[in-house]
């Protein structure tokens, strides 16, 4: 079975939407203490089967796990072959890596052997990091072996949790200890009331048709909300029903009020754009399609991308376009808006109402991808294939590699690559492009950052 078969057509359905990022639990310990067995125990049968596929094991070091409804990512640092020479150095390297990337370190010791010098050295590194450590005293297969576990109090990192990874003995207690060491789950970002209407910012330079579009969308409806009580500013929102849902259009007062203001008030427009973006989840950037793209249009699009909001591009005044303008517009867009190629485009006329209804599905797609999370195992399979098919060019005798990747956040999707050296900007752009090809992300910026292991 090829990798492509495993991913399948239904990948997009499998991507989780709006999931909070899951904390990382790194498993550290000497070879043969039972790390892999323990990881399989934590994950259950399904993942363990995948482990048996030859050649897959080594690269697939990170997995999604769940215990009592709490999700986390398990990283088996034993899956690495660090460049360090010698066992002690290799384990130390593993431990350093673990504390760098993990929220919690699960340190596994073979209780039947007891604490070795290498274990002591690892404890030093772990302790200095200040990260919470859970100590697993493994291979305590029966009551008679409990005293082996007790002896590990001597490591000075708290209670040894006696477990048998092989037989599953007390692994629930161990997972409970891991859970209580995890950081409090961050409350999901709600941008206002939980489960309330999604927040849309309608932005664009003066005269592109924001106010006309707002009137068209709102029609007779004028549910006005002002939730900034006690301030003199006026970011008044409007609730507008579209496509069977209620949407919150933020800072509409600014759009409507502008008519009383100086048309050339660029400064005001920029401020308003920023404040609308701060309060929104998705931006609809309106562009006047009948004119050439202006510097200011491009700046607004860049501001949206930098703010990490989802983005839909709406080309307005379509009723004014002739064949020739359409032709040039396409070329202009390709040339000038290449940093937003991934944004859905809708060609509309606020005046005639043409295709205005297409805005809603575009906004929904953008928001959905904005909150999407790629399962860690998928991400790492993707990276191990990418790296072997397209390795980073060798520079000065060195060839940086992507060791492991995790999605550290959503809204927008943020990826962190743990690499063995600095990745060139060109290679990072290549990675971003491939991520988009593989996982979609239409309508959302994505962030790719590196953590470098020299
Ligand atoms: P790793 O190198 O730390 O990943 O260790 P493995 O998970 O590959 O385990 C090494 C050996 O220890 C294997 O033969 C396992 O079957 C065995 N093992 C793992 N956990 C236990 C346990 O709880 N009890 C016993 N008796 N053996 C275990
Ligand atoms: P805003 O400054 O972005 O709020 O833009 P307005 O909504 O005030 O529109 C500026 C001008 O463009 C007004 O004269 C509108 O009537 C006109 N306009 C807006 N949308 C359209 C459209 O789709 N087609 C045409 N032909 N004119 C439009």
TrEMBL record:
It comes from the Bacteria. PROSITE patterns: G_ENGA. InterPro entries: AAA+_ATPase, G_ENGA, GTP-bd, GTPase_Der, KH_dom-like, KH_dom-like_a/b, P-loop_NTPase, Small_GTP-bd. GTP 1 binds at residues 29-36, 76-80, 138-141. SMART domains: AAA (SM00382). It holds the Pfam family MMR_HSR1. SUPFAM superfamilies: P-loop containing nucleoside triphosphate hydrolases. Residues 23-186, 198-371 form the EngA-type G domain. GTP 2 binds at residues 204-211, 251-255, 316-319. Keywords: GTP-binding, Nucleotide-binding, Repeat, Ribosome biogenesis. Belongs to the TRAFAC class TrmE-Era-EngA-EngB-Septin-like GTPase superfamily. EngA (Der) GTPase family. Associates with the 50S ribosomal subunit. GTPase that plays an essential role in the late steps of ribosome biogenesis. This is GTPase Der. It comes from Actinomadura alba.
